[in-house]
Design a protein that fits this description.
- By secondary structure, the chain is of the alpha/beta class.
- It has helices at 44-53, 55-71, 122-156, 192-207, 213-222, 226-236, and strands spanning 3-6, 9-12, 14-18, 25-29, 33-39, 82-85, 88-97, 104-108, 111-117, 162-166, 173-175, 180-184.
- The strands form 4 sheets. It has a 4-stranded mixed beta sheet.
- The longest helix has 35 residues, at 122-156.
- The protein is flat and about 75 Å long.
- The relative contact order is 0.10.
C-alpha cells in the first residue's frame, strides 16, 4: 500500500487509475481509509502534491472516525468508561455509597463522578445513570448552544425567539414557524464543528423554511465546507448515543 509523509505522520492510501477521470479525487471512508482516484497518465509528483494539499483535511477526517469508533458501543456506566462532550472524551468514576438512596452525577476537573446506592444492580445503575447523563447533556448543552446561536445569529442576521435542547427521535434540529430552534441533545457528543453545522442549518431556516438553493447558499456563506459536515453527520450520526 502506498503512503505519504505529512510532518511526523505517515498516511497510507489506496490508489486507482481511471481513464475517464479528469481530476484527482481524494476520499476518506470510515471502513476503507484514504482512497485516491487519478487520471490514467498522472505521475507521482502530481499525486503527492494533491495529497499534501489535502493532508490536513485527511487527518481531520481520520481523527473524526477514530473518535466515532469510541462512541459506537453503548455504555455500561462503569468506572473507566469515556463519554464524549463536544468532541472530547471524559472518563467516568463510579462510587457506591450505602448512605444514599438516589444516584447522582457531577462533572469536576475534567471527569464525571457518579455516586449510586449499594443496593443498585447493574441494570438499575445503567438506567439511572443514563437518565442523569441525558439531563447533564441537556443542561450544559443549552448553555453552549445559546452561545453558538448568539455568535452565528449576528453573522447571519437570523434571530430565534427561543432555544430548546431536548430529545428528538429523528432530527438533529428543527425550527418552528415562531422561530423556536430545537436541538437534539445527542448532537452535543459530536465535535464542535458538527454542532455548529446544525446551529447554522436551523438559523438559516428562520429566513428560508425549505431546503431551496437560496437556503443552501445561506448556509454555505457561513460554512463553506458545510457539505463535509453534513456528510459526517449522515454517516456517523446514528452512533451518537449513550
Amino acid at each position: 500500500m502506498p503512503s505519504f509523509q505529512y510532518g511526523n505522520t505517515t498516511i497510507d492510501y489506496d490508489i486507482r487509475y481511471s481513464p475517464n477521470r479528469k481530476d484527482i479525487t481524494i476520499a476518506v471512508d470510515w471502513g476503507d481509509g484514504v482512497s485516491v482516484v487519478v487520471p490514467q497518465e498522472t505521475d507521482q509528483i502530481h499525486i503527492d502534491s494533491a495529497l499534501h494539499k489535502k493532508a490536513r483535511w485527511i487527518l481531520n477526517k481520520l481523527a473524526d472516525f477514530r473518535e466515532i469508533k469510541m462512541l459506537s458501543s453503548h455504555h455500561e456506566f462503569i468506572s473507566g468508561e469515556k463519554f464524549a462532550y463536544l468532541g472530547r472524551q471524559y472518563r467516568l468514576k463510579v462510587a457506591k455509597d450505602e448512605s444514599v438512596s438516589e444516584a447522582s452525577l457531577m462533572f469536576r476537573n475534567g471527569r464525571f463522578f457518579a455516586v449510586v446506592p449499594t443496593s443498585f444492580d447493574d441494570s438499575t445503575r445503567q438506567e439511572h445513570l443514563f437518565d442523569l447523563f441525558r439531563k447533564w447533556y441537556i443542561t450544559h448543552g443549552l448553555t453552549k448552544i445559546q452561545k453558538r446561536i448568539k455568535l452565528y445569529s449576528s453573522r447571519m442576521g437570523c434571530y430565534s425567539s427561543k432555544i430548546v435542547v431536548k430529545e428528538q427521535q429523528s432530527r438533529w434540529g428543527s425550527c418552528t414557524k415562531n422561530k423556536t430552534i430545537n436541538i437534539n441533545w445527542k448532537i452535543l457528543m459530536a465535535p464542535m464543528r458538527i454542532v455548529d453545522y446544525v446551529v447554522v442549518h436551523e438559523l438559516a431556516h428562520i429566513e428560508y423554511p425549505d431546503h431551496s438553493n437560496a437556503f443552501w447558499r445561506k448556509v454555505e456563506s457561513i460554512l463553506p465546507d458545510y457539505e463535509e459536515r453534513k456528510e459526517w453527520l449522515r454517516v456517523n450520526g446514528p452512533t451518537l448515543d449513550l
